[in-house]
From TrEMBL, chain A:
This protein's name: Carbon-monoxide dehydrogenase large subunit
GO molecular-function terms, A-Z: anaerobic carbon-monoxide dehydrogenase activity; copper ion binding; iron ion binding; molybdenum ion binding
Transmembrane parts of this sequence: none
Aldehyde oxidase/xanthine dehydrogenase a/b hammerhead domain span: 35-144
Top-level taxon in the UniProt lineage: Bacteria
Keywords per UniProt: Molybdenum, Oxidoreductase
Species assigned in the record: Cryobacterium frigoriphilum
TrEMBL record, chain B:
Annotated source species: Cryobacterium frigoriphilum
Domain FAD-binding PCMH-type: residue ranges: 2-183
Keywords: FAD, Flavoprotein, Oxidoreductase
Pfam (any one): CO_deh_flav_C
UniProt KW Zinc keyword: no
Keyword 4Fe-4S in record: no
GO MF terms held by the record: FAD binding; oxidoreductase activity
Taxonomic lineage: Bacteria, Bacillati, Actinomycetota, Actinomycetes, Micrococcales
Entry-linked PANTHER family: XANTHINE DEHYDROGENASE SUBUNIT C-RELATED
Name listed for the protein in its UniProt record: Xanthine dehydrogenase family protein subunit M
Domain of life: Bacteria
InterPro entries reported in the protein's UniProt record: CO_DH_flav_C (IPR005107), CO_DH_flav_C_dom_sf (IPR036683), Diverse_Substr_Oxidored (IPR051312), FAD-bd_PCMH (IPR016166), FAD-bd_PCMH-like_sf (IPR036318), FAD-bd_PCMH_sub1 (IPR016167), FAD-bd_PCMH_sub2 (IPR016169), Mopterin_DH_FAD-bd (IPR002346)
TrEMBL record, chain C:
UniProt keyword annotation of Glycoprotein present: no
Region (Disordered): 153-193
Pathway annotation from the record: Alkaloid degradation; nicotine degradation
GO molecular function terms listed in the Swiss-Prot or TrEMBL record: 2 iron, 2 sulfur cluster binding; metal ion binding; oxidoreductase activity
Signal sequence extent: none
Keywords for the protein's UniProt record, in alphabetical order: 2Fe-2S, Iron, Iron-sulfur, Metal-binding, Oxidoreductase
Name this protein carries in UniProt: (2Fe-2S)-binding protein
Biased composition (Low complexity): 175-193
Organism whose genome encodes this protein: Cryobacterium frigoriphilum
Segments forming domain 2Fe-2S ferredoxin-type: 1-77
InterPro entries: 2Fe-2S-bd, 2Fe-2S-bd_dom_sf, 2Fe-2S_ferredoxin-like_sf, 2Fe-2S_ferredoxin-type, Beta-grasp_dom_sf, Diverse_Oxidoreductases
Length: 797, 303, 193
């Protein structure tokens, strides 16, 4: 059960290179990508297509005094200039957000963050559209901005959302989980209590492809075709129907190849709506693709949590309780993309992998004059923040107790026999076996040897740090009785057709942004039906061709859609049994399944393969009562619970004491995502997330100055790791299947992004222990590390 | 995607032709070499030249040649259109001026280095630009041509301030000349937030040893910390002394006092001063080691 | 103004505005959409193409500057149905996920291997350090390039041609934005050839 990964053989597959079902398999989507034949939104050219560009506000907070578009309209290549006033007339100036708030599509009254949408130009080509932006004259009356969440609730803070009736402050919500009184009692009785302010700064998913859309509205039949960079095409279609008043059956949303999403492409941005309005106004298709600064300054950021953490323990290192109060900066509009009933996402899994007596968290959301968002960047709905908090607090406790951080974790893990485990804030962890995973990571790292090396180096004045993180994720939202987005239950559909010759097509509602769905979902069908993955096409990304479902984010594709695909394949398999029985002139209960065929119990030579059954189904075989003439099925999967992947990460860093520069020397990641469908793809998902972790821990941050200027508005300042900043990842795995998931899989898309930042920061802090440091906030840039070494670590915001 | 405002374009065939084009199109014309400084500024519409004079065909400005100058001094001449990649890969440059190789390794990234030129870097005169410091440290002479002929400027004369040089709009920087000195070593070190980033701070040094092992000449330069020209006080402290760690520490202290950094996203003032100190010590150590190696190899050759 | 250049071995002459960036010339004029762009500041390397065999960031080169030069884009990597070993390597070693940075990464890899047929890991990492990948964490890209170095003639064996044929089915079935395919101009197809 516990193995070190080295392209492991798949017991279910006859041939590792061409498995029928699970195993390492080259991706079916790669041949088009390596030939430059990927097909992204900006590659789309429709006849007569025009180009849009957005004029954005140069300041963070200002009253819009006047806007003069006459000169822009006079530009020979300009077809339309749309302002907030124009949208007001259409009832489209404001759009609902995914968090029950509204967001301005174009400014009508007041600018609320730098980079906010002010006007939209539609022109013949992208060059002319950009030129015309310079011809729009806007007068602003600049207002003092609210840039620090800590002062957003002060009595004298300017009210940002004066558009909302009766609004007199910048408060959005308070949300709690756990039992406060019980937690207070546990803390009162504890030997040791340590507290720490921990800041998870604002970062940005920054996929390599920015957001964009091509809208094509046909005025004759009232039909809208919208090509979009979206991770959730079906949810977008429904929301567009609700916002724009176009009947849902007249809307087709197409999400072609997506150049990375990471949660950046879940929400509906003003640009998408403007492309649609532009097409309606001009009667022609309109393309809008944002530039990099627009992406970084206006689309969904991530995190921005200021957390006060407290942890309570006995002298001997039994962790008793954890509590935290959080100030959540949601920016100018509350537009977080998450299950609607959870305004702080799944942050309340901050109890982590430990068996606690009590826990309590309280999250307060506030408005500031920054871009809206908050739930993005592979965060599993705020599990990133939760894991970071608990894994930092455990390390701070270890330092206080003088215990080895690995030992402290091992001592406090939820035990295997406690699963399913009900934690103190309302979660039921489905399965887990933490100690072997932790032990494997320590063995791969050579943990004891690393500690010896560190001791020697410290004696020589060298700075080496070893950081551990043990995370538990909660992914696969989710059960419809608890989880919806604006009333849409978080379920996913799947349709499977087996054609007469035994080739199949499976249609799914989730949307790959690079995760390899065309391969993984074909492998699930292959595993269930015993036909080769290359004989199965996966169709996704087109609402006219796929069943309804909520899309890909929060690591939900395998847990939810994967479940749907397994179940629809089983439905087909079950139907195949009845048809096979008719073909073999026997009773269905006398048949037995082996991968790829039904055969007569006790006489394996007599049977029918799926291909034979498919031909039979579509042919002339006399079908039993209630069985129709095809081999198709469809399902919508409502998962009974979320899944809880986990993992043990160990990071080794070296710090140059003269400059504060941190080098990640090694990173060992042992993940447990339950049943493994394609180990190659899983490894890729982990590698990518670990790189996110290095980015966030060492360099990525969206900062603002006091005037409200965004300081991370280009790739010159928003730094993302290159191949030089990351090590050659060392990965391993254990397998603890989910007991409730149809194939036992748990999801892996975000584990490493969630789990790696604390391992890296813990390593940096460990390296700085000789300076008496027990905490420093991200990003650990050379300057910030040096400041910490001088005894004055400071929060990044 | 961001797009430059409209302009006209002409490709020069020779230096004289480029000069004529600049004359003809007036002060709103700009020289275009690698384009990796100018084009991003134009995309942001912070620069809006009316004409771009492309000099990428001026192969006469793409050279690395060693020879005697007019006074007979051993000189390395580098054409202004020499690409960063060419400089980085030149064994000759590395043997004579390892500080250039050190700096080139950390300028932008390999692909930008395929296009960017030494002349373009110097003319951009960004305060965080590495080659400006390198040229200051090496006492390079800039050869500038205009319709009236050629003029030779020291780096002190060449640099007028941030983003400003002595090259007039109707002139072209043609080459940089570096005096080759025996028993000399040089080095450059930069702290950056990530590979390819501009310097948080950087330092360069050149050290020439006398036959008795004392320091005969030394120059120290700093990047991105508000230091104009070389750090005279720090270099003066080294002259005539035997190179020791204590001496380097003193030079580092003087460098940190001399500079005048500003706080920004890359770090606070005291950190940058600290880096001026720390990096000065490091480059002095490495330059001295290299000077020793150079002295040894010279002695071997002479012996 | 008129520009003439060789793109993937084919001579191209087009009339353009002087300010047209090479990346837009390739994508919008020639309709070779395998070359992408990801930033405006020449930091991300998504737009890398080869100019006279050397990788350049085509968002920071004017099409006018490429006049008289030879450009290679990802569409020019394969020879007919025979993939470049770099393309094969990226498939073998999972060197791509979303595919957006992939064309630029592969072209840099091609130029590296032409210059240095047996690079070590550090040389590979340095060579691609001007390019950002948000998905892979780079290790599999390094492995892909090493695979290509170890299989200089890999693409000549039969499997490649097979997978080439197989891919067109997958690609089409996934890709539902058909209108854009049909809108692809003649000149683009000529350039592919």
């Amino acid at each position: 059960m516990t193995l070190i990964e080295d392209h492991p053989a798949n017991p279910a597959a006859g041939d590792e290179s061409r498995p029928i079902g699970y195993g390492r398999l080259q991706r079916k989507e790669d041949p088009r990508f390596v030939r430059g034949k990927g097909h992204y939104v900006d590659d789309i050219v429709l006849p007569g297509m025009l180009h849009g560009a957005i004029l954005r506000a140069p300041v963070a907070h200002a009253r819009l005094v006047s806007i003069d578009t006459s000169e822009a309209l006079a530009h020979p290549h300009v077809h339309a200039v749309i302002t907030g006033t124009d949208l007001q007339a259409l009832g489209l100036a404001w759009a609902p957000t995914l968090s029950m708030d509204v967001q301005a599509v174009l400014v009508t009254d007041k600018v609320r963050f730098q980079g906010q949408e002010v006007a939209f130009v539609v022109a013949d080509d992208r060059y002319a559209a950009r030129d015309a932006l310079e011809l729009i004259r806007v007068e602003y009356e600049v207002l003092p901005p609210v840039m620090d969440a800590r002062t957003a609730l002060a009595a004298d803070a300017p009210v940002i959302r004066d558009d909302l009736e009766g609004r007199t402050d910048n408060h959005i919500f308070d949300w709690e989980a756990g039992d406060a009184a019980e937690t207070d009692a546990v803390f009162a009785s504890a030997d040791v209590v340590v507290s720490q302010e921990i800041v998870y700064p604002r970062v940005h998913p920054a996929p390599m492809e920015t957001c964009g859309a091509v809208a094509d509205f046909d005025a004759v039949d009232g039909r809208l075709t919208l090509y979009e960079t979206t991770q959730a095409p079906h949810a977008h279609r429904t929301l567009f129907a609700m916002v724009a008043g176009i009947p849902e059956h007249k809307i087709r949303v197409v999400s072609p190849d997506i150049g990375g999403g990471f949660g950046n492409k879940v929400g509906i941005y003003p640009g998408y709506i403007l492309a649609v309005v532009g097409s309606i106004v001009t009667g022609k298709p309109v393309k809008w693709v944002e530039d990099r600064s627009e992406n970084l300054m206006s689309t969904s950021f991530a995190r921005d949590y200021i957390m006060q953490g407290e942890i309570a323990a006995t002298k001997d290192g039994t962790i008793l309780g954890l509590r935290t109060t959080v100030l959540a900066d949601h920016g100018a509009f509350n537009a977080t993309a998450q299950p609607t009933k959870y305004p702080a996402g799944f942050f309340h899994i901050f109890t982590g992998s430990y068996d606690l007596k009590a826990a309590h968290c309280k999250v307060t959301g506030v408005y500031t004059n920054k871009a809206p968002g908050g739930v993005a960047y592979a965060c599993s709905f705020r599990v990133t923040e939760a894991v970071y908090l608990v894994e930092r607090m455990v390390d701070i406790l270890a330092a206080k107790l003088g215990m080895d951080p690995a030992e402290l974790r091992l001592k406090n893990f939820i035990k295997p026999e406690q699963f399913p485990y009900a934690n103190k804030t309302g979660w039921e962890y489905d399965s887990g076996n933490y100690e072997p995973t932790m032990r494997l990571s320590m063995q791969m790292a050579g943990y004891d040897e690393l500690r010896r090396e560190q001791k020697e180096k410290r004696e020589r004045g060298e700075l080496m740090g070893i950081g551990i993180s043990f995370f538990t994720e909660t992914v696969g939202a989710g059960p419809r009785k608890h989880m919806d987005i604006l009333g849409l239950g978080m379920n996913d559909g799947a349709e499977l057709r087996v054609h007469p010759t035994g080739k199949a097509v499976v249609r799914i509602s989730v949307q790959s942004q690079g995760q390899g769905h065309e391969t993984t979902f074909a492998q699930i069908v292959a595993e269930e039906l015993g036909i080769p993955p290359e004989d199965i096409d996966v169709v996704h990304g087109d609402t006219d061709q796929t069943p309804f479902g909520l899309g890909t984010y929060g690591s939900r594709s395998t847990p939810v859609s994967g479940g749907a695909v397994a179940l629809v394949a089983r439905k087909v398999r079950e139907k195949a049994k009845f048809i096979a029985a008719a073909m073999l002139e026997t009773r269905p209960e006398d048949l037995e399944w082996e991968k790829g065929r039904w055969f007569v119990k006790g006489d394996p030579s007599v049977g029918k393969t799926i291909a034979e059954i498919a031909m039979g189904a579509h042919g002339t075989v006399a079908l039993p009562e209630g069985i129709d003439g095809n081999l198709d099925a469809e399902v919508t999967y409502d998962p009974p619970n979320l899944t809880f992947p986990f993992g043990a990460y160990i990071c080794v860093v070296d710090i140059d004491p003269g400059t504060g520069r941190v080098v990640v020397r090694r990173f060992i990641a042992v993940d447990d995502c339950g049943t493994r469908i394609n180990p190659m793809i899983i490894e890729g998902q982990v590698h990518g997330g670990l790189t996110d972790g290095v980015g966030m821990a060492l360099m990525e941050i969206i900062e603002f100055d006091k005037e409200g200027n965004c300081l991370g508005g280009s790739f010159m300042d928003y730094l993302i790791p290159t191949a030089m900043e990351v090590p050659d990842w060392e990965t391993g795995y254990t397998v603890t299947p989910s007991p409730h998931h149809p194939i036992g899989a748990k999801g892996i898309g975000e584990s490493a992004t969630v789990g790696s930042p604390p391992a890296i920061v813990n390593a940096v802090v460990d390296a700085l222990a000789p300076y008496g440091i027990t905490h420093m906030d991200m990003p650990c840039t050379p300057a910030r590390v040096w400041e910490a070494m001088q005894g004055r670590p400071r929060p990044p915001i | 995607m961001q797009i430059p405002a409209p302009f006209d374009y002409a490709r020069a065939s020779t230096v004289d032709n480029a000069l004529a084009l600049l004359e003809r199109h007036g002060p709103e014309s700009r020289i275009l070499a690698g384009g990796h400084s100018l084009l991003p500024m134009m995309k942001l519409r912070l620069a809006r030249p009316e004409w771009l004079i492309d000099i990428n065909d001026l192969f006469e400005l793409d050279f690395i040649v060693r020879g005697a100058d007019a006074q007979g001094a051993d000189t390395l001449r580098i054409g202004a259109l020499t690409r960063h990649t060419t400089l980085l890969e030149s064994d000759q440059v590395h043997a004579l001026f390892p500080i250039i190789t050190d700096a080139e390794k950390v300028i932008a990234d390999p692909i930008v280095r395929n296009r960017g030129t030494i002349g373009g870097s110097l003319c951009q005169a960004d305060p965080a630009e590495d080659l400006s410091t390198v040229c200051e440290v090496l006492g390079a002479v800039a050869v500038i041509r205009g319709s009236g002929g050629e003029r030779l400027l020291s780096m002190a004369e060449f640099h007028r301030g941030p983003y400003e040089t002595a090259v007039a709009h109707n002139e072209i920087l043609c080459e940089l000349r570096f005096a080759v000195r025996a028993r000399t070593g040089s080095a450059y070190e930069k702290v950056e937030r990530r590979v390819g980033d501009w310097a948080v701070a950087a330092a360069g040094a050149s050290v020439t040893l006398a036959a008795d092992g004392t320091i005969e000449a030394a120059t120290i330069g700093l990047t991105a910390v508000g230091q104009t020209g070389t750090v005279g006080a720090a270099a003066d402290a080294l002259l005539g002394q035997l190179p020791t760690e204590a001496l380097f520490i003193e030079a580092g202290r003087l460098a940190s006092v001399a500079c005048d950094p500003i706080a920004d996203q890359r770090g606070p003032v005291d950190y940058k001063r600290h880096l001026a100190d720390e990096l000065t010590r490091r480059v002095l150590r490495r330059a001295t080691e290299r000077a020793h190696a150079s002295a040894t190899s010279t002695a071997t050759q002479e012996g | 103004m008129q520009v003439t250049m060789t793109v993937n071995g084919t001579d191209i002459t087009e009339e353009i505005e002087p300010r047209v960036l090479l990346v837009h010339f390739i994508r919008d004029v020639l309709r070779l959409t395998g070359t992408h762009w990801g930033c405006d500041t020449s930091n991300c390397g998504t737009c890398v193409v080869l100019m006279d065999g050397q990788p350049v960031k085509s968002c920071t080169v004017l099409a006018a500057m490429a006049d008289g030069h030879a450009i290679t884009t990802v569409e020019g990597l394969a020879t007919g149905a025979v993939l470049d070993p770099v393309q094969q390597g990226f498939m073998e070693e999972h060197g791509l996920q979303c595919g957006f940075c992939t064309p630029g990464m592969m072209l840099t890899a091609r130029a590296l291997l032409d210059h240095n047929p047996h690079p070590d890991d550090t040389e590979i990492r340095q060579a691609i350090s001007g390019q950002i990948c948000r998905c892979t964490g780079y290790a599999t890209i390094v492995r892909s390039i090493k695979w290509a170095a170890e299989h200089p003639a890999a693409a000549e064996h039969g499997d490649t041609v097979q997978s080439d044929t197989a891919q067109s089915d997958t690609g089409q079935s996934h890709n539902t934005a058909q209108s854009s395919n049909t809108a692809q101009s003649q000149s683009a197809d000529e350039v592919h050839a």
